[in-house]
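Run folding on both entries below.
>entry_1
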Amino acid sequence: MVRMSAEERRESVIRAAMYEFARGGYHGTSTEAIAKRVGVSQPYLFRLFPNKQAIFVAAATRCLEDTRRVFERAADGLHGAEALAAMAGAYSRLIAEDPDKLQLQMQIYVAVADAERAGDPEFGELVRAGWLRLWDTVHLPLGGDVHETTTFMAHGMLINTLAAMGFPSGHRVWAGLRPAVGEGS
């Protein structure tokens, strides 16, 4: 049997945490469930990460970065309406093909609110920094137009909400989003 390095094991923990946190959120997910999914003991898990919050931060950071890279790849070399359509289509495919990413995004936003209510602004600062990188990745291909970027991101958040609530793609609530989602979706 081939042994994993600590970095490979850490990567396994992040992937497992993304899956578990997407389903149970921060408070509803135990580190025991994450350790079990990876096939390690809880003490080993805490040799890789100092605590549950650090695991969640790593999962949240990865989720936002994965989404940012989807936008970046889709818009590569494109501008304006072409970039908008490509990014919208790529995001639609991402949440259809990897619904855990969508669920984790929703859990991240709830966790920020919970942490800040509990007096912990650091987590929110980390998430907002990741979200701003998403914004900037979208903003430049859309010509630096604040209105276009805001509209795109607002449509994305509505798409997240409708998808998280389980509205099927043919439902009438999606009709107003069709032009913004683009041809590739």
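>entry_2
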Amino acid sequence: MLEPLRQGLPPLDPAAVSNAASCALPGRYEAVREARRFTRGTLDQWDIGERFDDVCLVVSELVTNALRHALPTAGPRALEELSVRLHLMRWTERLVCAVRDPSNDSPVAREADDFSAESGRGLFLVDSFCDSWGWHPLAGTLSGKVVWALFRLQPDG
């Protein structure tokens, strides 16, 4: 079930993007709340607020994973200077949430055997609530990766 690791986004025409928004999130756990607030405002503006619960859960998990696993453990002051970036992109019938972080390490999906555990289920939840997901390393002079989740939207009408 958690096989989509290390794959790029399915083919989507960048010229067909009808809306896009992004924000930088500081390297502290309050950023998860900021990501949810940004996501709520953006989805409401795009008139697709009906998907907020699923999208917000996935955004929260992706941002939490980036903060917990992708930022170095160099102390609170160093973390304040680092950030992750949340991107939301909408096509007519698709929404992509992507979180960019500075780590080159791939996401690691744990087995979800213990459903009472308080951590370790983030990618399982992402896989459960979106239509597809994956990750890819950044190219060129950029270091890090993007972890993305795709949601199919109901056509207008």
